[in-house]
Amino acid sequence: MKSWDDYEPAKDLFRDRVILVTGATSGIGRAVARDLTQHGATVVLHGRNAAALETVYEELKELGPEPVVAQLDFERAQGDEYQHLTEQIESRFERVDGLLHNAGILGDLSPIEHYNIGLWQRVMHVNLNAPFILTRCLLPLLRNSADASVLFTTSGVGNVGRAYWGAYCASKFATEGLAQVMADECENTSIRVNCINPGSTRTSMRRKAFPAEDPEKLPTPESITSPYLYLLGPDSRGVSGERFECRPGSKPAHLGEE
Fold first, then answer.
1. Residue 168 a catalytic site member
2. Residues 106-138: pLDDT tens digits?
3. What is the pLDDT of residues 130-174, one digit of tens each?
4. What CATH number does domain 4-197+225-255 carry, 3.10.580.10, 3.30.420.40, 3.40.50.720, 3.30.70.1150?
5. How far apart, in whole angstroms, are the C-alpha atoms of residue 253 and residue 251?
6. Catalytic entry in 57, 82, 115, 168
7. The overall pTM is greater than 0.85
8. In terms of C-beta density within 10 A (0-12 exposed, 13-18 middle, 19 or more buried), how is residue 179 classed?
9. Where are the domains of the chain?
């Protein structure tokens, strides 16, 4: 596989697999959830808006296994709500085979000197604390899988600081650190942990960050799902502790020239 464009997942790649996708109601989350369903996964659709979740549910149930809706507002949810979600999944499936942390918020693009403290706390909570809490709660169910994948979303500012990117940049640095810690802790287990940078993609977050940019020149969420399927599925078994770029045409660096 010389680039992600060469990857062709088997039609039934995710048969009998349970994958939770956060932020599944739009953008990349929705596109990945759709492709997972079409390849046989039972997708647990996370979102904070009931109407949006219902829309995605109705769309996906016609394409493959019936999805499951998990409404949870990461900004306001308390510990018992995470535990309740975990218990519901355990009662129905007993395990989780994949967890995609896709949900996140941008915050403001402003200098640290003027960054709103409350907004900083919101961004750090949604982008870092909530994924930590959800992962911690789901770890027993991930251990119940013979081949589990946890995939965190990072950014181009996730390992190189850039002026004015404030809390978003800091949250993605921390996300990569969390993923590395988990990958190390999960060595010699059935759980693998990686990070993925979707890059410049035609999403609402991208429009907010770059309002003058022509979105028609950017890849669509639907065009960048291949690396997500690879990293969440069995084809990447044994790959852990890595950071991946998923631009169309880019090479999965760790794979070399297969």
1. yes
2. 999 999 999 999 999 999 999 999 999 999 999
3. 999 999 999 999 999 999 999 999 998 899 999 999 999 999 999
4. 3.40.50.720
5. 5
6. 168
7. yes
8. buried
9. 4-197+225-255
